[in-house]
Amino acid sequence: MTAGIDAAAIGARDFGSLLNLCDDLSPGLKKKTPWLKEVSVYYYAVAKLEQLSKLKLPSLAAWASREMKICSRYVAVVLDQNLAMNLDRRLAARTN
Q1: Is the dihedral of CA 46, 74, 4, 93 positive or negative?
Q2: What is the pLDDT of residues 17-58, one digit of tens each?
Q3: Secondary structure letter of residue 9 according to DSSP
Q4: How is 25-88 classified by DSSP, letter by letter?
Q5: What is the pLDDT of residues 58-92, one digit of tens each?
């Protein structure tokens, strides 16, 4: 990834850190990126479900954890794509 994030290292609990990284590296990304707000709402709902089901429904908790990981990866991809496009724009501006 352009951001230097190892996709295999992204975990279910990395969502908040990745959102903060979006704010730090690409302010306004949350507002202009389709689905990022919806994915955030979904992530936090599934995280709550995972938390509530850990003891009594471990299979549901495992599913929720997988969903949370997918959401975290989505944020990483959105951030990576945005950084790559910004880099491309800067390089194009230099050559013109």
Answers
A1: negative
A2: 999 988 888 887 877 887 888 999 999 999 999 999 999 999
A3: G
A4: HSTTHHHHSTTHHHHHHHHHHHHHHHHHHTTT-HHHHHHHHHHHHHHHHHHHHHHHHHHHHHHH
A5: 999 999 999 999 999 999 998 888 888 877 677 77
d(CA 21, CA 40): 14
Number of Cβ atoms within 10 Å of the Cβ of 10: 21
Match 């724009």 to its residue by tokens: 89
Roughly how many angstroms between the first and final C-alpha of the chain, as a whole number? 26
CA atoms within 13 Å, Cβ hemisphere of 52: 6
Confirm if 1 and 62 have CB atoms less than 8 A apart.
Answer: no
